[in-house]
């Protein structure tokens, strides 16, 4: 299991680099540095490619963060029970935030 | 009057001392003096109760590793002049239980060493000597990593070994890699399964502390990263 999660951590890191770079470029430089209006955001969120990019960023960002926290936890002595509790907590947090983020994203998409 | 070193030595006898202390000594300097000469001078002429471990005196046995001026080093291979100071602090290796003064219990280190089965197991079908080409990059890499003298410097410098008592540590993982990378080895998969655990290769965060202090200039982090790749390849059925 560790080999797969480690590999996914590496893959998520590469995806984050690309997706985050793209996200920052769209957010800060797409109008020559001028701030985006709410309408600009709505137009952006009606573009399937850009919505996919945000979903990717959300999912891989959360995975990367949660796995990172779990990895730091494993660096310290812990019992099997403690490990299971922390893992379950992080999975719940990750899924919760992912669901909340995706719900928020598509609420905006369908409201536009 | 000859030059003198001001030496602070960690002292602790768990049988009689409540807590550790530092004793201070003034030791005359001589040419080409090593840290081992310093502690031997103290033991011979100043305090015969000082305990430390040494054997070969030429950097081969790995038994005289100590924490000198904030860094794990072999006492026999550390020239006093290389420290560029007359103030020297000698302590036992961190991350090990202290037996007495500068002598540490290497048992936790060798317990982990044993877990990876640190010996070569030949495949039964191999009856003739195997030709390993001298020019093969893999062989050269293994050759470098075989220089380990199990002094424990890497283990003492590793922050993961400090926080996780189960972590196999740089030396054992490096040894595992030298055997797993050897195509003649019969129990490569078994070894891979041992290192592919939470307390195995996955605890290494590539901080390179082990490489920083290795008196043989080995880079265990490199072996550990290679092991991680091999663990992933193994999941894809490539051994």
Provide a brief overview of the structure.
The complex is a heterodimer of chains A (112) and B (239). Chain A is an all-alpha fold and 112 residues long.
Q: What tags apply to this protein structure?
A:
heterodimer, A: 112 residues, mainly alpha, 3 helical TM bundles of succinate and fumarate reductases, 4 helices, 83% helix, elongated, B: 239 residues, alpha+beta, Ubiquitin-like (UB roll), Fumarate Reductase Iron-sulfur Protein, Chain B, domain 2, 2 domains, 5-stranded mixed β-sheet, two-stranded antiparallel ribbon, 14% strand
Instruction: Assign an overall shape of chain A.
Output: elongated
| Number of domain modules of chain A | 1
- Spell the H/E element sequence of chain A: HHHH
Residue windows where pLDDT falls under 50 for at least 5 positions of chain A:
none
CATH superfamily of chain A: Fumarate reductase/succinate dehydrogenase, transmembrane subunit
Helix count of chain A, per DSSP? 4
How many angstroms separate the termini of chain B? 65 Å
CATH class of the largest domain in chain B: Mainly Alpha
Average pLDDT taken over every residue of chain B: 94
CATH superfamily of the largest domain in chain B: Alpha-helical ferredoxin
Distance between the termini of chain A: 42 Å
DSSP strand tally of chain A: 0
Strand-residue proportion of chain B: 5-15%
* Rg result of chain A: 17 Å
């Amino acid at each position: 299991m560790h080999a797969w999660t480690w590999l996914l951590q590496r893959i998520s890191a590469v995806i984050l680099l690309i997706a985050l770079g793209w996200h920052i470029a769209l957010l800060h430089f797409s109008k020559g540095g001028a701030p985006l209006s709410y309408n600009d955001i709505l137009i952006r969120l009606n573009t399937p490619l850009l919505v996919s990019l945000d979903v990717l960023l959300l999912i891989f960002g959360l995975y990367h963060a949660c796995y990172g926290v779990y990895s730091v936890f494993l660096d310290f002595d812990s019992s099997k029970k403690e490990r299971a509790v922390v893992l379950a907590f992080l999975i719940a947090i990750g899924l919760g935030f992912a669901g909340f983020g995706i719900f928020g994203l598509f609420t905006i998409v369908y409201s536009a | 009057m000859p030059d003198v070193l001001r030496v602070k030595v960690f002292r602790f006898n768990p049988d009689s001392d409540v807590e550790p202390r530092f004793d201070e000594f003034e030791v005359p300097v001589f040419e080409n003096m090593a840290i081992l000469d310093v502690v031997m001078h103290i033991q011979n002429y100043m305090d015969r109760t000082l305990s430390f471990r040494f054997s070969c005196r030429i950097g081969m046995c790995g038994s005289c590793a100590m924490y000198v001026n904030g860094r794990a080093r072999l006492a026999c291979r550390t020239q006093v002049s290389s420290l560029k100071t007359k103030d020297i602090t000698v302590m036992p290796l961190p991350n090990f239980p202290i037996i007495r003064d500068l002598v540490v219990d290497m048992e936790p280190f060798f317990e982990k060493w044993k877990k990876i089965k640190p010996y070569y197991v030949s495949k039964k079908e191999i009856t003739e000597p195997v030709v390993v080409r001298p020019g093969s990059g893999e062989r050269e890499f293994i050759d470098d990593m075989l220089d380990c003298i199990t002094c424990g410097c890497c283990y003492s410098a590793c922050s993961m070994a400090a926080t996780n008592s189960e972590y196999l540590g740089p030396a054992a993982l490096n040894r595992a890699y030298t055997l797993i990378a050897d195509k003649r080895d019969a129990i490569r998969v078994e070894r891979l399964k041992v290192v592919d655990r939470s307390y195995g290769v996955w605890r290494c965060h590539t901080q390179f502390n082990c490489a920083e202090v290795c008196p043989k200039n080995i880079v265990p982090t490199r072996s550990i990263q290679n092991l991680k790749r091999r663990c992933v390849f193994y999941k894809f059925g490539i051994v």
